[in-house]
Specification:
By secondary structure, the chain is mostly helical. The protein is built from eight helices and no strands. Helix 1 (13-30) runs parallel beside helix 5 (105-120), helix 1 (13-30) runs antiparallel to helix 7 and helix 4 (52-80) packs antiparallel against helix 5 (105-120). The longest helix is centred in the middle third of the chain and has 29 residues, at 52-80. It is globular, with a radius of gyration of 18 Å. The N and C termini lie far apart (38 Å). 29% of the residues are buried.
Length: 168
């Protein structure tokens, strides 16, 4: 039996990010003493002199900016005729647009939007959970995708990987 032409990621990456975001928000809101778990960003906003509308503006800029990066990167996949979804076969390497600066601009866009959403939800715990989220994405998505792309595209992918960093 032949090996499937996919990287074998553990779950759709947007669901991984969403799961960690909701876990951080949920843990802070369902606990008997949420103030013991979650301090929010009130202390930081007060220390920096940021009012709630400014914090929400920063959150909105991050959310929209992350989504725009995702759209730009995913649009290149669609224009080149290859699947955006990591559970489908890749047919071409893309190294233009945001892929000149990051091998994973979509996951970077997800992370930027995640930060904006955590700020909008006033959830320091959700923001803290971005670190383990990125570790899961790196270990169980990106590394599998990189092994897949190296096997599929060989020297072309190795040269690209040598020129462009994984995140930034």
């Amino acid at each position: 039996m032949s090996k499937p032409d996919t990287p074998g990621v553990i779950a759709p990456p947007p669901l991984i990010y969403l799961g960690f975001l909701l876990a951080g928000w949920g843990l802070a809101t369902v606990g008997a003493r949420p103030e013991a778990i979650e301090g929010g960003f009130g202390w930081l906003a007060a220390g920096l002199g940021l009012e709630i509308p400014i914090r929400r503006g920063v959150a909105l800029v991050l959310i929209v900016g992350g989504l725009m990066l995702d759209g730009w990167a995913a649009g290149l996949f669609r224009r080149r005729g290859t699947a955006v979804e990591p559970w489908k076969p890749s047919t071409v390497l893309i190294h233009e647009g945001p892929y000149r600066f990051s091998r994973n601009p979509i996951y970077l866009g997800f992370a930027i939007s995640y930060v904006g959403l955590a700020i909008a939800m006033d959830s320091a715990l959700a923001l803290f959970l971005l670190l383990p989220c990125l570790a899961v994405v790196d270990q169980f998505v990106i590394q599998r995708e990189e092994r897949y792309l190296a096997a599929k595209f060989g020297a072309d992918y190795d040269a690209y990987r040598g020129r462009v960093r994984r995140w930034l």
